[in-house]
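step=encode ok
step=design start
structure_in=
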């Protein structure tokens, strides 16, 4: 890879993506049960990223340093789609994405029936970081 990792996300099927100190996004290729460390890192054509998250089915979500949100539909693709919204941190689950904005407001996006969902819905409360599970439970920290 050639740089230190500042953030990493692992999906259910062994998908591993990371953000380097420079903000470049990488995918770890060749991960198997016999080779969990993988074979090599591939640059995924996106820079200036603050956070990346790999969902259980291989979909990848990210936000950049300006809060813009991006989506890749398949772990093996490189085409990024811009999704409306502004988040400073997010987490992709099986069929939803949760995230927080600059003010700590929490948002959820239901992906049922659509790869990118239709809208962000605000959830009560304020957090700094969130994580979601397969059974629609969201955890977060406020400090």
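sequence_out=
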């Amino acid at each position: 890879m050639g740089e230190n990792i500042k953030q990493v996300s692992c999906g259910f099927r062994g998908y591993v993506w990371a953000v380097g100190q420079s903000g470049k996004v990488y995918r770890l290729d060749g991960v198997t049960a016999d080779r969990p460390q993988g074979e090599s890192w591939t640059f995924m054509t996106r820079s200036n990223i603050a956070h990346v998250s790999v969902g259980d089915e291989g979909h990848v979500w990210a936000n950049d340093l300006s809060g813009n949100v991006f989506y890749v539909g398949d772990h093996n693709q490189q085409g990024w789609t811009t999704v409306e919204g502004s988040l400073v941190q997010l987490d992709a689950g099986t069929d939803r994405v949760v995230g927080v904005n600059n003010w700590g407001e929490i948002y959820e996006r239901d992906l049922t029936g659509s790869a990118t969902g239709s809208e962000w819905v605000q959830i009560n409360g304020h957090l700094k970081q969130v994580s979601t599970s397969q059974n629609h439970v969201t955890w977060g920290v406020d400090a």
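step=design ok
step=annotate ok -> The chain has a mean pLDDT of 89.
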